[in-house]
Structures are given as C-alpha cells and as structure tokens.
What we know:
By secondary structure, the protein is mainly alpha-helical. Helix content is about 65%, strand content about 5%. It has 48 helices and 7 strands. A 5-stranded parallel beta sheet has the order 2-3-4-1-5, sandwiched between helices. A two-stranded antiparallel sheet has the order 6-7. β3, α6 (about 130-140) and β4 form a beta-alpha-beta unit. α23 runs parallel beside α25 (about 485-495), α28 (about 525-535) runs antiparallel to α29 (about 545-555) and α46 (about 895-900) packs across α47.
Amino acid sequence: MKFLEELFSETDSGNGRIALVNGAVASGKTELLRTFAEQRAREGAVVLTMTGDRDRETRAYGSLERLVRELPVPRAKTLELTRLIARPPDGGPPSSFDVANLVLELTLELAERTPLLITVDDAQHVDASSMDCLLRLAERTRSARIMLLLAELAHGRSAHPSYRIELVRQRHFRRLDLAPLSAAGVAKLLARHLDPDSAERLAAGCYTITRGNPLLVRALIEDQLDWPEPGRDARPVVGDAFRHAVLTCLRRSGSDVLALARVVSVLGPDSTVERLSGIVHRRPADVTRALRALRTVGFLNGNDFRDWSFREAVIDCTEPEDLAKLHVTAARSLHADKAGAGRVARHLLAAGGEPDAWAVEQLHSAAEEALRADDAGRAVEYLEHALTGQPDGPRAAALRVLLLRAELRGGSAADRHLTLLCEHERAGDLDPEQKVFLVQRLLWAGRQPDAEPVLDRLGREYARRRSRNSTLADVGHWLRHAHPALAPRWAEATGAAAREDAEPARWAASASEALITVLGGADEPGAVSKAESVLEATPLDDLTVGPMWSALRTLVYADRLETATNWCDALLAEAKARGVAWWRAVFSACRADIALRYGELSKASGHAHDAIEAVGAERWGVAIGMPLAVLIRVATVIGDHEEVREHLRQPVPEEMYRSGYCLPYLRARGRYCLATGRVEAALADFERCRELMAAWGFEAPTLAPWRTDSAKAHLRLGDADRARELANRQLAHPRFRTPRVRGAALRMLAATEDVSSRLAMLKETVEVLHASGDRLELAQALFDLSRTHQAMKQFAKARMVLQRARRLGQACRLEVTPPRGSEEPRPEPGAEWTVPEQAAPPSSTSPASPASPSADASDSSGGAAAAVQNDQILRILTSSEYRVATLASFGYTNQEISTKLHVTPSTVEQHLTRVFRKLKVSKRTDLPVDLQLEAARAGGTRTAGKPKVSGRGPRSDTP
C-alpha cells in the first residue's frame, strides 16, 4: 500500500504513473484496489473503475462502458462517446482512434481540476478494444495527473496478449507482485481470530496446507471456529469453508484450470504435462501455464496436489459419472504410456461399474502383480471387480482361482469359491494346473466327495493325453503323503501314465518324494539331501509353500531338527516380513512340532497358537490335527487336563481321519487318555495309528511311534511282557535307529526289567537321549535313573541325577513330582517320582520346585539360559575336561568314566580337579546340569547354540 501511495503522490505532482498489480487467485488484488481507491476518493481524487469480465471478453468496448458511465462530466459530453461505442454511424466497428481520443480528452479535462485514479481489475479479461483505449491513454498520461492502476491474474490467459509488453515499454510503468502470506503472517492472522494456544498450535499446519494463500487461511479459520470441539492436533480441521474456498479459487481461475484440476485429482502423482494435455485436449503450453497458476495459488506441489484436502474438494464438486469417465480415461492413458498394471487397475477400480474385456484383462494382470508384491488385499479388490464384468467362461475361472489364492494368503474364507470352481470344472473352463489346485483345496477343506469326481476326470485326462505335464505328475506323489487313502484311486485312473512318470518331474514332486521316502523308512540320507535341495533352490510363493512345508517335514521326520529349525525360522521370518498369514500359519505349525521334539514346551505352545490364530481354526481344514496335536501334547505333559479337554472339543473334519494329518492328532489324544487313566482308549488310538500307517506304507516312528506308545499303555495294564516285546521290536527295526527313537524305546525296555538290569539300561538311555537333543524325554529318563539309584540305596547318585532331572524338568515346565495319572509308565503302580528324605539334597543346595515362585523366576529363560551357561563352560574347559565333567554330572564314578573314555582313573581325577577349580565348585553334585545338551543339538561340535543362517539356508547337520 505504501508503494502505491508514493506513486499516487508523484501523480498528484503532475507525473502520471502506471502500476500493474500481479498476483494469484485470492491473493488480495481486488481488495487492494478497492481499499486504495476508497482512500484516494476520501482525499478528493476522482476514481474511475473498470473490471474485466470473462463472459464479455469478445464484446467490443464491453469493459469500457462502465468507465464511461462513471465519468463525472455533463452527460452531453459523454453522449457522443456512448453512441460511438454502442452503435457506430456507418454500422461498422467503431474506430479505436476516435474512441481513444474522446476518452483521453475527457480524462485530461478531469485531471486538470483534480488527480484522477483509474483502476482496472481482472485486466486479463478486458476485451481487446477497451484495452487498446487504455494503452493509448497510458501513452499520453506521463505528464498528466492520471494514475492507471491495473490488477491481473498471475499466469492467466489474456484476451489481449500483448498488453503487458505495451505497458512495460512505458517509462512511467511500475509492477507490483503480491506474494502469499509468510509463515509469520499466517500465525499473525490466526492470532487475530483464535485463542493463543490454538493459534500457536495450528500455525505451522495452516501454512503447510495453504502456503500462505489469504483466502484459504481465512477459510481454515472459519472451519476452526465452526468446529464444535477444538482438537489438540497440530493439523487444522478442514471443513466446508475450506472446500468452498478451493472451488472459488478454481472457478475464478477459469474453466480450463478447473477442468485440469479435476484430471489432476484423478491422476495424482501420475500427472505429467503430456498426459494431462492428452486428457484435457489442450496444448502442452496451455497445460504448463495452468499448472503454474495452480502452483502459484498454493494448490500443487510439482504436478500433484500438496494435500489430500484439495483433492477431496475437487472430487466433491465433480459428478460421479464424470469422475468415472475420467478414471477410465486415465487408465487408458497410463496403459498407453506402458505404466504398471497396478497403476492402471487402481483407476479401473475407482471408476466402478462393469468393466469391459480390456479392463478385465488389466485387472487380472494387476492382481498378479499385487500378489508378487505381497499385497493380497489389493489383489482381492481387483479380482472381485474383474469378476463383475466376466462372470462366466475360462477367464472367470482363472480369476476365481487367483482370487482363491489371494484370499488364502490373508487367511480369509477363501473356500467360499470352491462350489463355483467345481461348476467351472464341469463346464471345462479349468486347465490341468487349475484342476490340480481345485482338488487340493477341496481335500484340504474336507470336501472329499466333491474332490473325487474331479480327481477321476483329471486322472483320465492325464492318461488319455499321455502328456508329461509336471503338475499332473506331482498329484500322485502329493496324495501318497497327504491323502494316502486316495493314492490308489489316482493310480487306477491314470494307469500306465502314472508309472511312466514315476520319477519326480520338478521340485514339487521332489519334495513329496523325499517326504514319502522318510515316512516309508527308506533312503533317509538321499531324502534329506533332496529336501534341502528343494529348500535351497525354491523361492517362497503361493505355489511353493506346500512343497517347502513337505521338505521341512522331511527334515523333521528324519530327525534333522537343527537343520529343520534353521530353515523353518528363516521361512517363518520371511512369511512375517511379507505379511502373508497363511505362510506364517504353516511354518508356525512346523516350528511348534520342532520345539515339542526339543522339549521346549512354552515355545511349542506359542507357535501352535500362532499357527491357529494366524488364519483361524476353520481355515486349517483337515490339517488342523497338526497344530492341535502339539497343544494337546504340551497341555498333557504339564498336567493341564482342562486345557486338553478344551482342545479336544475343537471340531475337526471327519475327513481328517482319512488324511495323513490325523496321525499326530491320534497319538496326542492317546497320550492324553493314557495320562488320565483311560488306558484302553489310549491303546485304541495307538492301534489306529498302527493300522493307518501299515495301510499307507508309513514306517517312520518319528511321525507316530505307536510301538513305544503302546508299550507304555501295556505297562499301565501290568503286561510287562507285551511292553518288552513292543520295545524290542522298535529297537530291532532295521530302518529307524536315531537317538530319539532308540532312547525312547530303551527307556520303555528298562521299565520292564528288574532294578539291577534297569540301571545299566537307563544309563545307556540317558547317553543316547543326550545325543538326540530331546530334553523332555531326557528329563523323564533321568527321573527314572534317579529312582533306580534310590531303589539300589545309592542315595548320593540319586540326589545328583535328580538335581539334573529337576533342572531339565524346569526348562521343560515339568513337575518334579508328577500328579497321579501321569502319562509316564511306573514299574511300581501308584508310586510317585520322589526320593526319600535321606537321599534328598540339603535344603541349602536343593533347587526349588518348579512349581514354586522362586523356580519360576530363576528358570524363566529356560533353554536360553542353559545355552548361555554351556557356551561359557565350553570356553573354559578343554574337550577332555568337558567330556569327563559331563559323565560325572550323570552320576558316573571315576572308574566308570575311565572305562568309558579309555583313560586311567588318575587321569579322570586330574581332569575333575581342574574342572572343579575352573567352574568354582567343590563336588560333583554342584556341576552344571545342562552340560553337552546344547552342544549335542549343534551336531556334536563344541560350539554352543545354533548355527547362524547365512541368507535363508542353514548349514547342514554334522553327519
């Protein structure tokens, strides 16, 4: 304002001035002209006004008419000018020379008496004829008391493009650019209308959104005042006032700018000058100018809206039909520019309606792209929209198969599509790979009656074509371990074709073949190698998660738990990182099984719960038996029978009992029955395991050790001879002699012997189980050994072994004194696992019972604490000292140790002396009880803990 006042003061002195005020929409140009004109009028100056009008740009002298009417001169003097503008004498266009001369004559006459101010608002919309008159007037006002003050829109299109150049040529021309409010200016404006706390809190947010546009700032102030309860966020409330202000700015910027803003609201970050130009059908130069105008007004950052509130305001003022058309146009434009399918599909989805064939194709491609990016939710949206435009035929079948896979990832009720897919299969819409997938999902969901005819038709098709389709070749291998009761049906349907393709055709069949080999008890090293090859060479995705699960189970049932743990942990971490619920469920179930085999009961329970909660119990279908089996076993071992009953009340599909997934469940249920005294029911479950395994060709006791379990049941019934027979049959089995299997069988055999024979057998059992890494079975064997020492009056040894058993029991969450009805066998029915008072360690050194608060606190870390302790011991002791200390902690005498290690008793004594000094203990009973266990788990090497995973694959177990 001060700048303009100085210019007018020079004008009043006889030096005419021209000023052009340039600014964005709503930057205050009109307000500035009005305020300045009112001040000059109060001072006695003559003020004439002219306003450009977009609707009158093409009408000659349309803008000049108002100025002529406002001239404060007798009407007779303006009559000729008015007639000349309205209707020239010859009927042709009026002479701009004549009109300009008359205007100049009248204004100069006024300026002789008093200063004259002529304001021209929206100069860019002044018609060409009126602007010519103003330019002629500007050329002749240099020495007159006339100030010409114009205001124009920055970057606006002008009806007289050259008027700015003509003005700039005048020596008495000045230009004034109106800048937006600064951050301090916004804060000051807020402080005038809001309470101090709100003004300070909202200032930065208001400036960020509006970039100092005065109209937008005032609109935000109105929204804050209208909001019923002031918030505490730094971002201001964006309401109706702001949205109306945005639309006002756009409409005042012109229809072209408004149309462009609508396209930008649709394209968002995909807005480019070329793409916008093609959609709005304007020259790139015009689009560039409009974008510059939107940036100047504070709407854009680059070519996109700086804040979502601008986009919402523009979309709100666009008709839904027009918005849908814009989205479709944007989709086709992006496709033409070879943009990603996802970017195209987002617009097709936003357009709604029924997509055409081209749109369905794009949505299909985008869904596949989304699944590769692990965005299953987005893929589901694309596929469901695509199906509205393609409800039938092979394309619809392919869409539904992909939709089923996408929903499986998120753990939703994907099986709702199975009925429709069965109809597609009967109509011939599915290709072989899709039919295989349908069969697998039907069987998983427990819908075997629906799966059987599909399987029959698929088998006949395979036999008829005699093709080497690897997916079809995989079916037989997969059925043999997952649904072995159906394997003969497939073999009958395929006939010779299945025999000719008996060799695994690819990684899927290779994984199944490895699992079948281990379950059947043949060529275990080759199967393990094959499983590891599958894990190493196969990327994790929807098609490979099943084979990778089979490969992991191969390692578990082959008792390669360390390798299985590392692979499973890596795959589980990847599943979590990629956010795929189904993968997480599968690998959590596998990890729960591994933890149970290590005796890590808390981990096993946690992973099993995670497996079920990740997708829900009903989504597990016939495989629900696997995580449920772990939960039942854990609750049984710790004596929480109410929790077991809760798990057994969980409904399971009837078809589960005809699948390979039922065996762990039957075994867990039998162990619970045994623990609660229902021995006949337990024997029935174990016998059912035997029958199914025999029928299916399964021999692996690592899956369901029915011989050892049945031996326990017969011991409960007092039939020691039958128990001995079963245990010996397990020990004599030619294929499975792993430490885990052999140790469990030896323990059962020891329970059938007299006390003197039992002692040597239990010592061997403890040594064997040490190598297996199974802390649970080892702790139970140590309890038996301690009780045997007690029966032989060897109380010192009983006390030392019991201490070790207690520590392991605490790590496994076992009770030191199992309740009556424990699942474990007793040579003397009804006897508790206790030691007499004379054999019990003194109270000062006696470890607290696991049931006591102190025990829970000291052993809360379980196996982790043991691993740390063992790691420290490994660094202190030599390998010879470590072996001697381990055997001494078992209760071996010096003579027994010397015989076992083939050294002299004197050497043993020297080693023990150094061990006591290094570990700072004074007697054998003070030796750490977790010696060697963690080292055994690491493959027998003197490296504590588990080997680290390099990349995703682990190093193999030490053979």
